[in-house]
Structures are given as C-alpha cells and as structure tokens.
Amino acid sequence: MLPERINSVEELENLLSEPTDGVISVLSELDGDIMVLGVGGKMGPSLAYMALRAFREAGKQNEVIGVSRFTSAEVREKLSKWGVKTIACDLLNEQQVKALPDVQNIVFMVGMKFGTTGQEWKTWAINTMLPAIVCNRFRESNFVVFSTGNVYPLTPVVRGGSTEIDSPSPIGEYAMSCLGRERIFEYFSREYGTRVAIVRLNYAVELRYGVLVDLAKKVLSGEEIDLTMGAFNAIWQGDAVAMALQCFSYVSSPPFIINITGPETVSVKRVCEEFGRLMGRQVKFVGEEAPDALLSNAQLAHMLFGYPRVSIRRMMLWISDWLMRGFETWDKPTHFEERSGRF
Questions:
Q1: CA distance 201 to 176
Q2: Contacts of 139 (CB under 8 A, 6+ apart)
Q3: SS3 82
Q4: 66 vs 8: CA distance, rounded Å
Q5: Which helix (H) or strand (E) holds 215?
Q6: Distance of alpha carbon 66 from alpha carbon 64, whole angstroms
Q7: pLDDT tens digits, 272-304
Q8: What is the pTM of this model?
Q9: For 172-201, b where at least 16 C-beta lie within 10 A, e where not — what string?
Q10: Contact (Cβ atoms closer than 8 angstroms) between residue 33 and residue 61
Q11: I need a labelling partner for 330 at 20 to 30 A (CA). Which of 16, 39, 302, 320 fits?
Q12: What is the spatial distance between Cα 85 and Cα 329, in angstroms, rounded to a whole number?
C-alpha cells in the first residue's frame, strides 16, 4: 500500500529503496557481491540500499559495495549506516581502479551531464575514457550500465517514443559521449565476452528532483513554462532502480539494451495545469508545443518487469504536497526542455 503523503526524507528513502518481489527473486539467484560505481549520485544510494535489502530478504549475506569519490561525507555516512560498504576512489585513476576488489556484479552509474557545455573535454573523459579503464579492469564481471534516452533523436510525439531497435542519433556532445560510453562497453563485450546490460533511462523522478519537480517548482513560484518541448517520459526512481537491478538476469555478450521509463507520453501543459490546481496557482505558459520530443518506448521493460508501482498521478500528489510543506529539494534540474543538446 502506497502512503497518501510522504512526511520525511527518511520515509522517502525507505520507500525509494524498497525491493520488489522481482528484485528479491533475481538477487536470490545471483552469485557474488554487487559493486556500485558512482554510488554518490542521485540514484546510487537508493539502488545500493535496495540491493542490500533484497539480499537480506532473500536470506543471503552477499555484500553491496559503493564506490565514489565521495565529495559528500554525508552520503558516505548514510550508506555505511545502512550497511553498504564504501570505498573512495577516483575512477579516472587507473592505479586506484586496479586496487578495487574483484567483484562479480557491477552497476555502472558514473557519468557527467550538468556543466557539459564549456567542459566538453571533461565530459568525454568521464563518459568514455573512464568506462574503458573500468572495463579493462573488470572484463570478467557482469555489468548493468546506466545510459540515457538522450542517445535517441527527437521523434514525433504521435509515434510513442524510440524503441531499442531504433538507431541512436544523439544531439549534442553530451549525448554523443553517452553513446560513446555504450560503444566502449559494447567493444569489451564483443571482444572479450564481458556480459553487459545497457539501461537507457529517462527520466527518473522522486520528491527532491526530476522533471515533475522541475515543473511543479515553476508552477509554485509563478515562473513561465516553455511548452516547446511539450511531452516527456518519467518513472518513479524506485521503479527505475528495481528494473535496473533485475537486468542482471539479462546481461549478455553482445550487450542487452533496454529502455526504462514510464508507460505514458506525458503532456507538459496538462501536468502543469494539474499542478496549478493542486497548489492553487495560476500557470503561465509561453511558446507552442513542437510536434517532436525526446521520448522512449519502454514496452520491453514493462513486459519483462511489469508496470511501475507508482503512477504519474501519485507522484504529482506527493510532489505538490512535499513542495507546499517546504520540504527539501535538490538544485539538480533535468534540463529536459533542452532541444539542442547543450547541457
């Protein structure tokens, strides 16, 4: 049973990391520990804690190891409190990567998006060179790799989004470098037999960040909302994490590729109008809806893992209530409205 409202960060994080029956089933059959590279990001803590909870609910004592530079001591302390083992490591440093423990199963969550423009050199290093260092060190491991729907082009809204068999056509250097990350994993998978699943995600949402939070904050503050990117996909972060962990059942050589997002093509205008109703605000729009948008079709994920537990409507109710009560949000906008690929 989902709660009517979420009353604290602790309650939110407990909900985000609650393992599904599917995750428990997959991890009950998984040999070895799990290491999460890039655990300090937005989704990393939820994924690591969900994996650990799933192991324990399955009656297994496998470890979950979180690796990050840990620029935030608070994140590391939280993970340790939950029982996740932590290792501080600069994954661009080959010697530090060599010193990491041998682990059978790896979730790769490292990536650079924000601040790409003006630091293209760093973006390419993190999104392509770093994966090569990791792959070279862990050729024998199983990888679930987080990628992005940005590797696809804009497509007509009426089409329902890109599928996994559509050819990538990234717009801008960030998206190009993300396709480069996929190609590095594909190279090692095809050349050395490394078993890989690539998760093309857009967009994960919880109450502190995400497309729905971006839009709700604009409605609440009375800011104008540009309708040009008139549609998007979104999925509750807990559901995205659960689907990603279940991808360990599908790692393969060459890589298994899967889109993960919600089932709906969501209208920016309709979502904002509803947020305005929920929060008692007038909504200001500018621009006109373009006939195309960055959209993914996740039918394969829903067929394999089921539909998300949390609906768009439920997320909107939680988010509007959370914002109206002045609870914590992160200054990490998705920039989903960006159409030229400049982040």
A1: 15
A2: 188, 192, 193, 194
A3: helix
A4: 24
A5: helix 211-221
A6: 7
A7: 999 999 999 999 999 999 999 999 999 999 999
A8: 0.97
A9: bbbbbbbbbbbebbbebbeeeebbbbbbbb
A10: no
A11: 302
A12: 26
Closest CA to 282 of 228, 342, 223, 232: 223
Please state the φ and ψ torsions of residue 35, each to the nearest 5 degrees. -115, 130
Give the Cα-Cα-Cα angle 163, 164, 165 (nearest 5 degrees): 90
Contacts of 158 (CB under 8 A, 6+ apart): 291
Cβ atoms of 240 and 210 closer than 8 Å? no
Give CA separation, 83 vs 49, 65, 77, 146, 307, in Å: 8, 9, 10, 23, 29
CA-CA-CA-CA torsion for 80, 84, 90, 96, nearest 10 degrees? 110
The residues near 234 (Cβ < 8 Å, ≥ 6 apart) are 203, 204, 205, 210, 211, 212, 261, 262, 266, 312, 315
**Identity at 136, one-letter amino acid code:** N
Pairing of strands 204-205, 266-267: unpaired
What the block records as the tokens of 332 is: 């990490």
275: its two tokens: 């947020």
Other beta carbons less than 10 A from residue 252's beta carbon: 14
Q: Does an H or E element contain 192, and which? A: helix 172-192
Q: What is the pLDDT of residues 108-137, one digit of tens each?
A: 999 988 667 788 999 999 999 999 999 999
Q: 36, 67 in Cβ contact below 8 A?
A: yes
**Upstream peptide bond of 254 is cis (omega within 30 degrees of 0):** yes
For the chain, percent of residues with pLDDT exceeding 90: 94
Q: Is 70 left (phi over 0), alpha (psi -120 to 50) or beta?
A: left
Q: What angle do CA 180, 182, 186 make, to 5 degrees?
A: 115
Bridge partners (DSSP) of residue 35 are: 65, 106
The per-residue pLDDT for range 331-343, each reduced to its tens digit, is 888 999 999 888 7
* The predicted structure's pLDDT at residue 331: 87
Phi, psi of 138, rounded to the nearest 5 degrees: -120, 45
Q: How many CA atoms lie within 13 A of 328 on its CB side?
A: 8
How high does pLDDT run on average in the chain?
Answer: 97
